[in-house]
Amino acid sequence: MFRCKNCLLLGALLLLLIAAIGGQAETVPCKLKDAQYGKVCVCTADYCDYLENPTLSQDDEFALISSSKQGLRFELNKGSFGAQEKYTINDYEEPAAEMTASNGTILSRMVDQALASIFSQPVTPTSSITRSVTLKVDRSKRYQRMEGFGGSFTGAVSYLLENYKEQDIQDHLYKSFYAAKGLGFNLMRVAMGGCDFDLEAWSYNEQPENETILTGMEKLDDRDVIRVEQIKRLKAVSGVENLRIKGAAWSAPPWMKTNNRWTGFGRLKREYYQTWADYHLKWVELMENNGLPIWAISTGNEPTNGILFMVFVKFMSMGWTPQTQAVWVDDNLGPTIRNSKYKDLVIFSNDDQRYTSPLWFKQMNRTRPGSLKYIDGVSLHWYWDEIFGSSFVQDTNEFMANKIQIISESCIGDKPWQKAAPLLGSWERAEKVARSFLSHLQDGFHGWIDWNIILNEAGGPNYVNNTVDAPVIANTTSYTEFYKQPMFYIMGHFSKLVPEGSVHIEAVASNVNLDCVAFMRPDEKIVAVLFNSGRADLDISVVDTVRGNLKVNVPAKSIHTLFYN
Ligand SMILES: *[C@@H]1O[C@H](CO)[C@@H](O)[C@H](O)[C@H]1NC(C)=O
Ligand SMILES: *[C@@H]1O[C@H](CO)[C@@H](O)[C@H](O)[C@H]1NC(C)=O
Ligand SMILES: *[C@@H]1O[C@H](CO)[C@@H](O)[C@H](O)[C@H]1NC(C)=O
Ligand SMILES: *[C@@H]1O[C@H](CO)[C@@H](O)[C@H](O)[C@H]1NC(C)=O
Ligand SMILES: *[C@@H]1O[C@H](CO)[C@@H](O)[C@H](O)[C@H]1NC(C)=O
């Protein structure tokens, strides 16, 4: 028996197969959903949005990727430099007809409403003022080289992924961040042991106590058995080319500390300085032996939490002053790493708020002039940037010239005056991310690692309820969906077309209506991120010293990535 139902099914399967082999359908539009504070994109095991990176076929061609408050998400348009006409990026509009086509009653009501609104409108809409700006891009003026962009794979992230039972939806999360058709991330931060975004405090070698030979580090902790497998899967399915992982410890096991606790006023005991250096080396070795080579470590997460802010900070922390850290780096960590098989490991210091820098490094240098030679990079957290201005960054740049400078943690919802939870769909929070990326990249930063890549609806799990927002929010009711926040796309406007090795170039806007940063990639193509935070649409005239002119009108509250030869 050969029933027609089967042949249709067979035909459909065949078509799917052809589509898959043909490699089309890499670009999948966002499935937009209204959430409480704006719009999110919904991903399920069967569906997730991606944008295949644009290619340029002619010298004067450009591609423009756009997102907006109103609902554009990685919308791709193309055109040519030197064209007479002005290009216009139309903002997102609700697809009214489509959702009602099957219901006559509603359709006719909508038509009535539409007619009513057309007739009640004045002939010329009053709201639209257009501002204008000229952007000059000069690729001959070159600044810092980019290391890249990334997110963090905490215990909370690992736990949420573990609860998504379908492999396909886990894979969508990995690809959304690390595939070329996703955000193209290449950096990642992981905790050496636990951090606050975990189900409990933990570290390696909690047992046996008081033994400097660290026999408790011979194999992966059960939690890391899962996490390491997940990260390896991420590498495999995303195709990320050069994933660079940065490790940071939140705290030593309590027995190494002066207060014998995970948190509070506690420092590393002097007799365990070398043991703690060995711990770092052993962790790097353990990860590599389990298939995850490590690119960098830091000297420890937020060292001032354990000496100044223990009243506010309830999670794992270990205090350092710059003076004690200088001694540890100079006598223990530095020599231990540089005399090992992992001598090229990149060592970052500070890993704390920008207001501690460059004082931190000046004090280290004063205590031990040799200590800074072991430090390859400065990593800062963005949390108090609105209060402590960019002069801290500029001074650090000067004092730590020729070192890698990155943001190693950022998220919103950490302040008493902010809601300590995700705001689903918030474009305003996404704009904060955009402003901070722009100012740090303009100030010479080489990269950015955001905090948790996914959190639950409450902004956790976090074992001390230190909940915050994240670029992707899980649905832990069903574990069959996750939501991409506007800030996910904002980060992508910077990361997606700016691979490792790109160089920041000069881009100057003629007025404050546009904020911008531009890069030349290793393939010598140009990428400019254009941010219109205003309430009016904006005419942007791009003048490139090599390529010529281009005029484009972009909607209010929108961000764009311009890509050209
Ligand atoms: C179509 O309209 C009818 C009558 O208003 C309503 O009862 C029904 O729920 C609608 N169906 C859909 C799919 O919206
Ligand atoms: C480890 O050392 C501390 C401090 O000297 C001591 O109180 C503790 O009992 C020791 N632990 C073990 C298991 O020996
Ligand atoms: C560190 O201190 C020494 C003096 O001990 C000084 O010569 C050097 O310039 C300082 N390093 C930096 C980066 O300022
Ligand atoms: C975190 O919040 C939950 C639920 O409100 C509460 O039961 C728990 O005690 C809190 N934990 C901490 C460490 O504050
Ligand atoms: C999560 O999924 C449940 C069940 O499908 C749904 O009722 C709920 O609205 C979803 N949560 C969010 C934040 O969309």
UniProtKB/TrEMBL annotation:
Residues 1-25 form the signal peptide. Residues 501-562 form the Glycosyl hydrolase family 30 beta sandwich domain. GO terms for cellular component: membrane. One of its GO terms (molecular function) is glucosylceramidase activity. It catalyses: a beta-D-glucosyl-(1<->1')-N-acylsphing-4-enine + H2O = an N-acylsphing-4-enine + D-glucose. It is an enzyme of class 3 (hydrolase). This is Glucosylceramidase. The gene is Dvir\GJ22784.
